[in-house]
Amino acid sequence: MKAQSIDIKKVIFTQLIDRIPAANEDAQQTLILAHRRELVEQAANHCQRAYPDKRIEIEMGNVHATGTADITVASVRSITSQGRLKKFDPSRFKLLLVDEAHHIVAPGYLKTLRHFGLDEKRPDSPNLVGVSATFSRFDGVKLGAAIDEIVYHKDYVDMISKKWLSDVIFTTVESKANLSEVKKGAFGDYLPSDLSKAVNTSEINDITVRSWMAKAPGRKSTLVFCVDVAHVVELTDRFRQHGFDARYVTGETPKIERGETLNSFRKGEFPVLVNCGVFTEGTDIPNIDCIILARPTRSRNLLVQMIGRGMRLHPGKKNCHIIDLVSSLDTGIVTTPTLFGLDPDILVERATVNDLRKIKDTEHVTTQKPLSYQTTPGPGADSVTFTDYDSVLDLIADTSGEKHIRAISKYAWVQVGKEKFILSSPSGSYVRIERVSEQLNTKGPLYRAIEVRALPPGVAKAPYAMPREILTAATFTDAVHGADSFAAKMFPHTFIHRYQKWRTLPPTQGQVDFINKMRGKAEPLKLENLDKGKAADMITKLKHGARGQFARIEAGQRRQDKQARVAEAKRLREQVKVGPVSS
């Protein structure tokens, strides 16, 4: 069974115990399995409240159960060590309950199932029931090795709409972290050691705290998820530098201190609790009204688990604010928008579940072909759009890259590459504007203009003279104005001006033949499809590398298609459906 709330899962636990009939009079016992101390203690507490007349024992660490209690709640690590399973007589058990059942195919669980005769179907075996909020595994291991069928599934979105869970609002913040070089582990998620180096920086930690200050003022109980202990310590210190009482808990925190910190947080005695890997599962802190996701992940399960910590209902709690620190996105990253089938690049501000659903619905209705990789030149050059080209013709016919430069210049500049523009003369000579530095804060020029003169036939082996730099400029606009002044003196006005009448005339047959020759096997271009000016611009693009550019785009598209297939396979693995489970 799949449910999204600790309370709901525990209610299912407690209600099932008396409802499951015994196969025989002797089989009256129940075993509950969990993999974390908090889950064991929570399950035991729920059972004690629900069944005050039953004997309930714990098998965990130094605490040993007798093996004969009505209900035993066990840590899977403890029960499978040092022969502790032997005291549990399988014939006396009617039910095995497994919390966080997506772990059920792990070796410790499988060992326990074998002991109780649940490794294969037998009429005398106890019933096996598993519950989880994330009934899938990021490593792709199928749950069918232990589970026959999913009998009930309720998505967290449905549970929010039914008021079984707290409403949530989402804000995504671009953190500037670059994950492109972060290595992946055996199960596909980021290696914590590499990830920590990418996100645990002074700049990103400051962005995290300032984003929380700006976007979530007045939140009383914020839980922060980090990558590792070093990240926890640094980010906690950054909160404190800004004057906030922030405390942390890690796997290294002593048990007594951890319990005291957690109890103080539950009571609202301090506003920010920072952790790594401690509270992703089984945490019962209903007062949490803000979650900061300061650790990027490629695992949908982990993302849902982190968000789920803030979805418990609590008196006076209107909603939980999820602040997702999204990074310079690496393919495969999972962010809050991706849970709704949206692009991970989407940045949202205080969006509710219904808002994200509406965005998805609108996106589905108005879906257009995404636009190949291109950057808008000049100011705002870091903004990115995407365009797919089905053919070389589509590429050379695309004029979207010229919009910015043609808003500055009256001449017929043509974009031939990323922030690279050509203005041609009838002799074959041309001027090229290009970016020379990627650093916006550099003291040197950002752009330059180059003249390339065509040589008369027979003068030299090469068709062009050596390129000559004619100017450098700090801004794109200055580079365009300078290059325009140079071209006005060197090239015929009637040829380079964008609004000359000749550009509106039909193309020559020679132009059409040249374009058709260069564009390969695609459907031949016809005279009525373009004018002479457009044909001239297309020829300029072809002469300056459009075929090679298209080949690179095609290669990139093939990579994207492969990544999309991998992502779709991963999505299907994570999809939960009621019914038989494949093994």
TrEMBL record:
Keywords: ATP-binding, Helicase, Hydrolase, Nucleotide-binding
Pfam family, one: ResIII
GO terms assigned for molecular function: ATP binding; double-stranded DNA helicase activity; forked DNA-dependent helicase activity; hydrolase activity; Y-form DNA binding
GO biological process: mitochondrial DNA metabolic process; mitochondrial translational elongation
Residues annotated as domain Helicase C-terminal: 208-384
Highest taxon in the source lineage: Eukaryota
InterPro entries in the cross-refs: Helicase/UvrB_N, Helicase_ATP-bd, Helicase_C-like, Helicase_Restrict-Modif_Enz, P-loop_NTPase
Gene Ontology, cellular component aspect: mitochondrial matrix
Domain Helicase ATP-binding: start-end pairs: 20-153
Name of this chain's protein: Uncharacterized protein
Lineage of origin: Eukaryota, Fungi, Dikarya, Ascomycota, Pezizomycotina
